[in-house]
Amino acid sequence: MFIESFLKIIRYGVLKIMKKMWRSDDKRPIIATANHILEEMALPSGFRTFRDASFRSLARFEKLPVSEHDRIFNELIVSAICVPLFCIERMKEYKVEEYHFWQNVGKAIPQQFQYKLMSMGLDGGNAKLMRELITLRYEEYEKFLPKIAEVHVQESADFKNFSNFARYLGAAIHSTAIGTADHIRRGDMKPGDPLVTYLIHWLMNLQHSSVDFVRKL
Which residues of the chain have pLDDT under 50? Predict the structure, then answer.
């Protein structure tokens, strides 16, 4: 455990140096940062959620065939990847001088995920479909952001006082959670479904980690 933690610190330090020395014609820091987000945050978070007993109970795993388990796993992983993408999209408000770096990282994340799947033995066609699913879901969840933000403003006095950044990410988390739950339920989600609440808490924790990483790197 100590050695693993020490190696993570070393890798993070190298990543900071690579980013500091980044030039627009050098893709290595972009790829390394994208892989870090995938390997250290998004993918482990999605896998832990998939294995969590509370999630499986809410998703009614015991009533579903294995093929549905696989489909749900894919939805969780895609949603976990969407969260840092939403965070990166709004970092221009805080890191204007690094905006192009982070925009390039955001573009690289789905592509690196595709390469990672292929390195694990998934054929190129299916790996490409997973990359395309990220884009599809991201656009889907982004589409409902204004409506969700509007509802929050109407229902919460505190939400009105949040910064544009906080309002955007709050709406993004709720949109992603609702959309993910709806896909897990195959469009048969009922009002007040506790699965949505579970997913909001999960995605909020991932969002905090993502924002903290982007701000400090």
Answer: none
Q: For residue 70, which of 157, 149, 184, 181 has the smallest C-alpha distance?
A: 184
Quote the CA–CA distance of 20 and 3 in Å, as a whole number.
26
Instruction: Report how far apart, in Å, the C-alpha atoms of 42 and of each of 17, 81, 92, 106, 186 are.
Output: 22, 5, 21, 13, 23
pTM over 0.85: yes
Residue 111's nearest CA partner among 41, 26, 35, 172 is 35
C-alpha 41/C-alpha 50 separation (Å) is 14
Angle CA 99–202–183, to nearest 5: 95
- pLDDT at position 203, please? 98
pLDDT digits (tens, 9 = 90+) for 22-54: 888 899 999 999 999 999 999 999 999 999 999
* Separation of alpha carbons 5 and 195, rounded Å: 33
Going from N- to C-terminal start, the domains of the chain cover 2-216
Separation between Cα atoms, residue 175 and residue 76, nearest integer Å = 14
